[in-house]
Write a structure and sequence with these properties.
520 residues, Growth Hormone, Chain: A, 3 domains, 18 helices, 0% strand, MFS transporter, membrane, transmembrane helix
Length: 520
Amino acid sequence: MSDAPPAVPRRAWQALVVLLAGMFIALLDTTIVNVALPSIRTSIDASEATLSWIISGYALAFGLALVPAGRIGDRIGHKWVFFTGIAVFTAASVACGLSQNDLQLVASRVVQGLAGGAFVPAVTAYIQLLFPFRARGRAFAVMGAVIGVSTALGPIIGGLIIQAFGADEGWRLVFGVNLPIGVVTLVAAAVLLPGRRETDAVAASHKAASIGGGAPGGAPAGAPEGTASRGAEPAAVQGAGVDWVGLVLVSAGLIALLVPLIQGEDEGWPLWTFLTIGGGVLLLVAFGAWEVFFSKRGRLPLVPPRLFRHPSFTGGVVLALVYFAAFTSIFFTISLLWQAGLGHTALESGLVSIPFAFGSIAGSALSNRLAQRLGRTVLVIGTAAVTLGLTAVWLLLLTVPAGELTSWHLLVPLLVAGFGNGLFIAPNVQFIVATVDGRDAGAASGVISAIQRIGSAIGIAVIGSVFFGTLVVQGGSAEALASGFTASSAAAMGVSVAFSVVAFLLVFALPRRTAARGSH
């Protein structure tokens, strides 16, 4: 039998281009907005809490939409879920750019996040359905490259736009970038994406071929998050509907936790903030109880309770939460420091992130090969590098006089942290999924994908509260402004370092290798 990869129809590659155009703008918006925050702050007199909500609201909504959107796509077909998500995302991007106040902007960002979380699961679903098992690696490699390029280009594109059009118009056009890409993607999706009948027929032929060739039924090694095959769900709950009660409970609980974390500093931590946090905890407990009840009725819950019978999976979920809280918040801190504190332009702020982006791309390129050779050690090295890099940034903020701090000081630490991030991001999901039974791989990967986005939201909420809570500017001089922002940035970066240390320790809860229990 030949080892050559099977031929992939041209239609599959055309569909992949369309899908990755959507993923490009969804991930671009996770980084491009950071450099626009200071401009938004001055343009519409946005509050400090609003700046946190712009990032946290998007990440939280994105994460909460992932699992139900994937389930809905499985039921009605992924084409029109993707199409609708892109349409809403594009309209919400325009609404962000036209916003006149804090409330309009935050609301539009939340809708944008929901739409992004709705269409992104279709990307990995289509790769599973349209590509033969032995050819999926190439498709996922292209997807990984798009992820790296989109996140790397975000700060640069945002900085160039604000540099060219000024602060007031520039931040609005940062959101406007999505309009032409979104419109073209909509037209291409309507024409090029196959419908449910066609994808089911293609998937059935691939499944028959894989059974004949002995290929395993789960996601290929090195596949990005959320890529487990459809067949991973237990037969008793195949095709079950979305757990809407569970979704409402977990959404309400997380929002109840985030609102006081973000608003508490602005409001002076009144009694309602502590009561709301307590209410959020109770809602999350109720969510857990509901999931157990829903599962016992033979239905497919949002988060299957049986996953947490594996202590290593529980540790892996906490790892995903803490790690994403650590690394996604650092450029929130650096962007505010660089522009609002040190008086640099948005473009200069964007250029600061280039070493991290290039490091991430280099680490991602090596991660799959190293994961196969070193096993869990690749995650240990990755989190150690992130911790070392962030610790170096923190020490620089503590020791270098504010007026003397330049991007050259941060180049090596951010390059090291970025390289570690690349080593961790690509293989981390397969190691966490390896802690559960093979039949639960699909549910586990969906939970982890959502937890990662929720971790990003919580990280920004906590870091924003620390940053603005410690910000004290004594006097109106540029030196006083730089000193105050540098001190608060050091405090915020210290929290990011603490998160990264916890993530490093939690890596040891994962299995040494990725051969999941019960897999083929």
